[in-house]
Amino acid sequence: MVKFQKYRKLKAGVMAVVAVATLAVATAPAAEASNCKFGGVTINCDYPASKHVFSDGALQQFVIGTDAAVWTRWTDPQWTSWSSWESMGGQARSGVAIKQHYTQDSILIGVIGTDGYGWSKYRQPSGTWNAWQRYGVSFP
After folding, report:
1. What one-character-per-residue DSSP string does the chain give?
2. pTM of the prediction?
3. Which ranges carry the PLL-like beta propeller domain (predicted)?
């Protein structure tokens, strides 16, 4: 029963992330996206950067790259240095929505994919990420 309740909470959290990501869908096609510099890289400026602060004070940022993938970087807890940008993959046509899940160190991120479906990734408290998961809701 407890496992089922956790699954329902996870599913509800994912759907909330997908719903928030839906609000960030831009009307401009990807070919007409406006690009700008952010944190030393060129990103798709049609979607704002998203961020999350973890319990140790470390900050993680998420952006949509010019390749439509989700990109991320993070700081150390004192914010004295940044990691290099890393691609998380995916093909997004929305900004990255973030939802804290159970603890400050486990989060869900969600985007609307170029296929029109909601996609999410889950970060475990250990810092590992699961694979992208598609949800059966298509957005026009």
Report:
1. -HHHHHHHHHHHHHHHHHHHHHHT--SS-GGG--EEEETTEEEETTS--EEEE-TTS-EEEEEEBTTS-EEEEEB-TTSS-BPPPEEEE--BSS--EEEEESEEEEEEEEEEBTTSEEEEEEE-TTS-B---EEEEEE--
2. 0.77
3. 27-135
10-residue mean pLDDT series, the chain (140 residues):
49 49 42 83 93 95 97 95 96 95 91 94 93 79
